[in-house]
Amino acid sequence: MNFLRNFLASILGTLVAMILVVILFFIAIAGMASSVGLEEVESAVEPREKSVLELEMNVPIYDNVAEVQSLEGSLGLAPDTQELKTLLDGIKAAKINEKVEGIVLKSPYVSAGWAQTKAIRDALVDFKESGKFIYAYADFYTQQGYYMASVADSLFVHPMGGVEFKGLASEVMYYKDFQEKYGFKMEVIRHGKYKSAVEPYLESEMSDANRTQISVLLTSIWGNIRQDIAQSRNLSEDRIDAIAEDLLANLPKEAVAVNLVDDLLYEKDFKSKINAALDQEEDKKIRTVSARQLAAIAEKELKGIRNRIAIIYAQGPVIYGEGSENTIGQEVFVDALEEATKNKRVKAIVLRVDSPGGSALTSDIIWNAIEKAKAKKPVVVSMGNVAASGGYYIACNADEVFANPMTITGSIGVFATVPNLKGFTDDIGINAEQVLTHKNALGYSVFEEPTASFRSTTKAGIEYVYETFKDRVAAGREMPLDKVEAIAQGRVWSGNQAVENGLVDQLGDLNKAIAAAAARAEIDKYRIRSYPKIEPELEDFLGFGGPFGALESQLLSGLPQGFVEFLHQMQNTEKVQIQTQLPYAIEIR
Q1: Residue 390 parent element (H or E)
Q2: Burial class of residue 584, CB neighbours in 10 A (0-12, 13-18, 19+)
Q3: Chain centroid offset of residue 508 CA
Q4: Does the residue 2 lie in any domain?
Q5: High-pLDDT (> 70) share of the chain, %
Q6: Domains in the chain: how many in total?
Q7: Distance CA 138, CA 155 (A)
Q8: Does the residue 455 lie in any domain?
Q9: Average pLDDT value for residue range 57-82
Q10: How far is the C-alpha of 145 from the C-alpha of 111, rounded, in Å?
């Protein structure tokens, strides 16, 4: 008996020791990440002669990679990631580095938004001015992947591959009939002719207003795609439209025939093409460098420069609360603004916004913090894939605003939604009864229809936020209120359209916004300091890769994006929050 007790005790002790070792390991790794900096993981080693920059566009691209994501990637616990600015800086460095003779571009698909894709492609166009080559190869190309690859001097695809080239589409799901059938309902209160975030809960089909704005948006974005491909492939824009309209590049040999692709090759033969361009034996191993390596070399050359430009990344939904590197909360972002403002080395601030919006209250808190920051230092906004509604709210008062032509922005409108389960609970025989001291004491219950007073008070709040939103835009953009109203009402605009209607100052990528901030600060040389940087905590690692979380992610990934968002909305049974949020989930394909 003693033997069994001792044996079990030794097993338990061993398990506890192993758990402690794992915990201490992650704590040590987190400490190293914060003290050394993940940017220094890639050594700034000079490339060798006859090197090529290899770009893998299927690796997920973020404006800002969270510390825990970077650390998990470096430890092999999660897929690798890339930062947009690192890619742009690496391409820029490759242009002037004498040892880098060209770029090998692999973009079967691009794991990024359209605005990010456009920014990288524009950087590649600039690279070509050096006279160096860009060769592109893939087994197949999605439409977005082909758009990226079309910049290449020579573009190849596998003989059994293909090119997706069909024009743009966006699909919106409607839930009115589903709600009526099953008793799960979203109660909606809104303002704005074009505020169609809530339209899918109210209708069974798309309204004319919503169809108009989606059509205009897609047409504007397609115009950029068509123009860029036409210029790179020496085709007319009408010809590009015809190829997309009739699917004339559907088969690999057809893609060659219509001049979207130069030739059909196996990958080994493609490598021979690269060696020929490098003027070396066709079977010689190709020396490659990464964008991260070249960007690190460029950063190393700036060592000793004291001046800083702060980039504050605002990516993800706007929430009321602390916030993180992937959500925009007032605590983290107000602290970041205040820290950048107080830092004497920081001479200007660039706010990089990639957000569909969210909490109206948080948006206004951050707007106020920007007002205080720009009283002391220049504040310039760079818009990413999306800077709409609450995302535009926190951008509208900057000293200067830049957008990508394919940015989705605007959406100046307000709404509120709360889930209602009364139809469902009635069907299954559940009845909720209430006792009140005052007629409005209940406020809102998911088990009862909203009262007239609840609707009227919420509508009054929405009207107040909408008028305040318009006032912020009018003051920030120096625009009459009647003009703001004309382009507001929740309508979305592309970056091109936003420049035309005055919501944005100029078209340009993140680096152009940084250069504008430096010019306003009257500095020539500077280094970049990024915010927010949140040190990984133990629970971030312990929560990573859990079996139930992974299973949930796999299940949800198989559902349409719009339906997943509907499920998330139904889970929110807390107090109603007035939202300044993008009018619908825009998935352009």
Answers
A1: helix 390-393
A2: buried
A3: 16
A4: no
A5: 81
A6: 2
A7: 9
A8: yes
A9: 70
A10: 9
Q: Which sequence positions are flagged as catalytic?
A: 195, 389
- Are residues 379 and 345 part of one domain? yes
The answer on 508 and 399 residing in a single domain is yes
Question: Nearest to residue 382, comparing CAs of 478, 490, 309?
Answer: 309
Within-domain flag for 577: yes
Q: Which of 474, 488, 479, 354 is nearest to 411 (CA)?
A: 488
Per-residue pLDDT at 20 exceeds 60: no
Tell me which of 483 and 180 has the higher pLDDT. Answer: 483
Number of other residues whose CB lies within 10 A of the CB of residue 304: 7
Q: Which is more confidently placed, 546 or 432?
A: 432
| Per-residue tokens: 293 | 């390596």
Counting Cβ atoms within 10 Å, is residue 1 exposed (0-12), middle (13-18) or buried (19+)?
A: exposed
**Judgement on whether residues 358 and 293 belong to the same structural domain of the protein:** no
| 8 A C-beta contact, residue 112 and residue 61 | yes
521 and 385 fall within a common domain: yes
Rounded to the nearest 10°, the torsion over CA 19, 23, 28, 34 is 160
What value, to the nearest 5°, has the Cα angle with vertex 338 and ends 337 and 341? 85
Q: Which of 297, 331, 365 is the last residue of a domain?
A: 297
For residues 293 and 309, membership in a common domain is answered with: no
Q: What is the mean pLDDT of residues 287-296?
A: 94
List 349's β-bridge partners, or say none. Answer: 310, 379
Res 445: pLDDT: 87
Calpha distance 202→193 (Å, rounded)? 14
Distance CA(344)–CA(235), nearest Å, equals 52
Same domain, 358 and 273: no
Whole-prediction pTM? 0.86
3-class SS at 329?
coil
Query: Cα separation of 83 and 514, whole Å?
Result: 16
End residue of a domain, out of 262, 297, 332: 297
CA 178 to chain centre: 30
Contact between 412 and 493 under an 8 Å Cβ cutoff? The reply is: no
Pair of tokens at residue 86: 């690192």
Distance between CA atoms of residues 127 and 299, nearest Å: 19
User: Which domain covers residue 389, as residue numbers?
Assistant: 305-536+545-581
Tokens of 9: 């005790």
Q: Are 432 and 447 in contact (CB under 8 A)?
A: yes
Q: Does residue 149 lie within any of the structural domains?
A: yes
Say if residue 518 is in the same domain as residue 370: yes
Q: What is the CATH number of the domain that holds 285?
A: 3.90.226.10
Phi, psi (degrees; rounded to nearest 5) at 348: -160, 160
Examine the domain organization and report whether 512 and 557 are in the same domain.
yes
**In this structure, how many other beta carbons lie within 10 angstroms of the beta carbon of residue 429?**
6
